Amino acid sequence: MDYSEKLKNLPTQFFANLVGKVNKAIEDGRDVINLGQGNPDQPTPKHIVQALQKAVEDPNTHKYSPFRGLLELKEAVCDFYKKEYDVDVDPVREVAILFGAKAGLVELPMCLLNPGDLMLLPDPGYPDYLSGVVLAGVEYELFPLKAENHFLPDYNAISSDVLDAAKLLYLNYPNNPTGAVANLDFFNQTVKLAKKHEITVMHDFAYGAIGFDGKKPVSFLQADGAKDIGVEMYTLSKTYNMAGWRVGFAVGNPTIIEAINLIQDHLYVSLFPAVQKAAIAALSGDQTCVKELVARYESRRNAFVDACKQIGWDVTAPKGSFFAWLPVPDGFTSQSFADYLLDAADVAVAPGNGFGKYGEGFIRVGLLMDESRLVEAVQRIGNLGVFKNK
Asked: Is the dihedral of CA 98, 103, 108, 114 positive or negative?
């Protein structure tokens, strides 16, 4: 018995390899400060946990959920989008419940494309986008995200032939791994481009709640005509520290939403109803916990960036997400610097080349531990002396 060609062609799980290296160092008894992960470190807010506990005690939640999720949850999604972004969403036609946003990201090419069709992906970008490419048997082109363009794509640099051939475009702001954000003008420009070239747009809004310096991240659906050509995928993982709960949703174009619902009809029987009840509590309840979480990440960002500057590391503070995107010093590649930090300083980071060709020359740091440990990590790096001449 052998694996299918699709499984054989799946990309190596980048984060699994990173975790293996870190765990080996920890097993050896080393005090590793792990800045390479993207797993929220704070607990899920108590009112959400309590909503789950209450729902679990109700025998009605022990049965199958409706295939396409609870209408009550979809209505909570609509209320959330109206309150947060002043966007009107129809709960029946324009919302799909997801088993975490990752499931939707991987499913979408199978929903909309045929083998050999072309999609466009950001470089650097979330590595698991490529899983959907392989499973759908489609082709892809990468477009670079460069510092000189604030890590936004330069659509003028993409050839007309590629744009005419492309059928699906993925975007992600606030961005993983760069921490960059997009404004409404950029999204309006994207809608115009997509309509001109008949491209469907998927905006990955996983870090939609996390913006700094008093600026709230913009939803793609706030752009004029966005729902004509695209969808946005949102997860509760980051906003409410619910990464292990695996609950998210897609909102937007009704045809795309129906496609997602259709494939999920054949893959799942919707989420555990008690988890859906907890998601309703998260979206509908007091959002003070979200404001406090964003303030915590901003405080960590400031402490970390200040510490970097003190050792001579010329870094740019991220504008959103809980990641920092940092240039490696002269004489190193992304991978060699990440390996060096783990070996010589017991500091784990994610090498930028794991996110694509244009990630080379950078490392990604997660702001997912107390400020004191973030500062200690920078001090350890400073003690290596690699930034003395900066």
From this structure: negative
